[in-house]
Amino acid sequence: MATAMSHFLRRASLALLLLSAGISCSALPGDWHGDQIYVKAGESIQAAIDSARPGQLVFVEAGTYAEQLTIATDGLRLVGGGAVLVPPSAFVQNTCSGLAGNDTAAGICITGKDIKLADFVVEHRKVLSVGTPVKNVLVTGFVVKGFTGLDITVVGAEDAVITGNTLYDGTQYGCLTVGSKNTHVDANNVASTTSDLPFIGICMDDMSDVRVTNNHVNGYGVGLCVQTNGAYVFGNDVINTCYGIYVDPGVTGAQILNNQVSTGNPACLTIPGGDLGITMSGAINTEVKGNLVEGWTASGTPNGSAAGIVIVDDASGAIASGNMVVNNVLRNNDEDIYVQTNGTGNVVAGNQCSTSTPSGLCG
Hints:
Pectate Lyase C-like; 2 helices; 34 strands; elongated
């Protein structure tokens, strides 16, 4: 009876966890109802992942696990029930090793096979080609903290879902998705717990169809980094960063919708660029609509600068063109909207704001 009751309670807690992450049990592939793999504190998560069949579910019970995980199995569902992942004493080599610079590693590395990477130049290595993508991987319910490069990384995947995780102090990235298709990063808490600003909270450098929604990002140099054409960035809460949302040069057709971007980090005011809420630097055909942008102010810092929404040309030569900034609410910023570009077709209209450069863009 005790064994049966324990099994029932495990299944019940697993179902509740999945539902809280917005995942229907019936939507999971494989016979997960009777075919889960359970990992207890003191056991190896990676051993369970390695033994799992495509479509199988691995449930990790509460505890602290000093491991570095690699997921390369289609349909694998990695679900944490109070599991905390921290760096091991020694790292193994996988696709994510060195991805964000020398001696960097990822806490969870979701990877396809035969990935070809460019050399590291800046930020992270680019994906040149993917041999066989890993498909339909889910990671939810984990606390991942303190990895030298990245807490969770998606490389060469299709239809990966990263949802309902808490990511602390990833030195370079909280979450990076690169060289993948149809990645969904949703409802994660990405934060720094130290006075040192890590680099980027969530960065999307995918081939196509990335969605970053409903995440909370606090205390990074860049909150959300948009490097994917057509990226969909919706409903995120970004606070205490140097750049709230940054759309990279040449990125086309991104949608930045209904986000709350607020309160720049004072530590950023002494470096070039200052505190900027939503920035389109040489971006093309970006839609910025329905966002609340507030609290971007230099607060009297000498030579500090701050603004809510910015459209500029990039130093690389990329010209900002065809961008649309409409129906946003901007308040309590030194400069609500700042536009300085040689580009054409940029539209700024219908925003609730008070100050702009050039003047006349508010109202």
